[in-house]
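Dear colleagues,

As part of the handover before I leave the project, I'm documenting each prediction I ran so the next person doesn't have to rerun anything. This entry is a single chain, and its sequence is reproduced below.
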Amino acid sequence: MPDTDKTIRPLTAAQARKGLDLRRRPISFDAIQPTSRYRHLQITPRMPGFAAWIDGLDLTKPLTTPIKRELRQALWDFGVLFLRPQQISAEQHVALAGVFGKVSPGSFFERSPDHANVEMIVSDHDRPPGIDQWHTDITWMQYPALGTVIQITETPPAGGNTCWVSTSKAFAALSSGMQAYLARLSATHTWEVSGFRDSLARHGEQALLEAMRLYKPVSHPVVLRHPQSGRNCLYVNSTFTKRINGLDLRESDAVLRFLYDWLQRPDFMVHHQWERNGIAIWDNRSTQHYANADYWPHRRVNRRVTFEDPRSPQAGVNVFDQVMKGRAAD
C-alpha cells in the first residue's frame, strides 16, 4: 500500500549524520578567473564570486555580439557589474538594458521626459529618499524583473552609496540542515507591505484600490535556483515578503527575521560609492540592494531601466500608467 502520509516528521539522528550537517561551515565561494573566461571584456572581481568592475567599455558605441554575450555571462557570474562614469543618452541606456532581456516599462516610479522606459528616482529637500530598505525589485509580481541598469547622474556631496548582497553566497553559507528546511518553503510577496502603498495613496484612494485590484499577492519559493548560473539563492526580502506560507505566523516571523539578519552579513556584501554618471547592472534573482539615505537634503538623481521576464503576462505593460488609467476610468 503506498504511503500517503505527507506529515513532515523530525529528522532522526541517522538522517542528520547522513545528509544534513548542522555544523557551522566556512564561507567559501569558487573564484571565477576572468582572464580565462572573458576575451572581450576587462573584468576585475570585487569579491570572490560576487560583484565586478568592467573597464574600457564605451557605451556610446554599438556593442558587438561577442561583447553582449560576455556581458550576460558576467552578470550571471558576478550578480552585479559596475562601469566607470560615462555620459550616455536615454536610448543608449535602454539599449544596454536590452542586452540582458526584454526592456520593461518599470513599476510605480515616475518617467523621464527623454524616454518612457527610463524611470526617475529624484531625491532632494522636498522629496526625501525613501528606498533605504533591503529589497529585491518587484517580487510582488508573478514574474519579477530579471534585473536593472541604473546610472546616478547627480550625486550628493557625500553619502548616497548603494549596497548589494549576494543571495547565493548567503544561501551557500547556511548549514545543510537549514538549506534543506528552506528549500521546501514558499513565501507570499506583495507591494502592499512596502512604501509603494503610501506613494500610490498620494495619487488618491482610487489609485490605491486599482493597484490592489490589478496586483494581488503572489507566492515564490524561499530558495530560487538561478536558471543560468545554477546557484541556489535566498529569495525573501524585508520590503515585499509578507510571510512564509504554511507556517504558524510566529515561526514565519522568526525564520524571516533570521534570514534578513543573515543576509546583511558583510561577507556577502559589496558597498559601492557612486561617482557622477557611474553605472551599475544587477541580476535581480541573485542579489538584494539597499540605497543609503544619508545625504538628505542634498540632491541625488537615479535613472533606471529594468529588464523583465518575457514569460510575464505583464511584459511590456507600464504599471504606473495602468494604475492611473484604471483610476481615471472609475
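The chain is about 25% helix and 25% strand. Residues 41-55+63-290+306-329 form a domain with the Double-stranded beta-helix fold (CATH 3.60.130.10).

All the best with the project,
I.
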